[in-house]
Amino acid sequence: MIRQIVLDTETTGLEYKLGHRVIEIGCVELAGRKLTGRRFHRYLNPERQIEAGAQVVHGLTNEFLQDKPKFSEIAAEFQDFIRGAELIIHNAAFDLGFLNNELELLGLDSIGSICGEVIDTLLLAREMRPGRKNSLDALCAEYAIDNSGRQLHGALLDAELLAEVYLAMTRGQETLLMELDIAPPSAAQSQLNRERMPLLVLHANAEELAEHQRVLAEIDKESKGKCVWLGATQRA
Predict the structure, then answer these.
(1) Structural domain range at position 211
(2) Last-in-domain residue among 149, 172, 195
(3) Whether the predicted pLDDT of 158 surpasses 50
(4) Which is catalytic among the residues 90, 153, 203, 212?
């Protein structure tokens, strides 16, 4: 059973190379394409100011984050949660860039060394919907997923919505065996199948046969002798 983690982050700005940091991590777990209920969610003190443009997007303030843990305090717990899983991220390069930067600052292993494959749902959506808008809101609208509570970006909420989007986007990729869950017949069922009663055949009576011939004769007359169901020897 494949274990998958749907992940999202919020940050102080758009570019970690300019010193911006992660301020929220949200993850939800899928196992066998079903939500397990396990989550990882933390707000973080970035130890720097949040850009005004970023604050408009997610609504998180420096005052709110002041007493939250630093990334170093939750790094081990975060790594344990995602370890060995397949990651599902929308615009993966952005989130992975920030998270790997945080790990590198602490001298810890990168995401790629502790996790399996990364599925970028933005790239997947672009392949499935070329030339169309593929933001999370646009995909929620496409797949009839209720995102009415998403007034601002939030890592946990967005991860939950993305999980539903991903499942909707990839529905039908399961094997027939997974969909139908068919088990091979038991020995008793096989024996029962062999011992079924023979098929009962009901023959038409004389009245029904006569009516059948009458209908065929009418068809033959209307088609000027082209009724394929009426043998040549039966025609008057």
Answers:
(1) 204-231
(2) 172
(3) yes
(4) 153
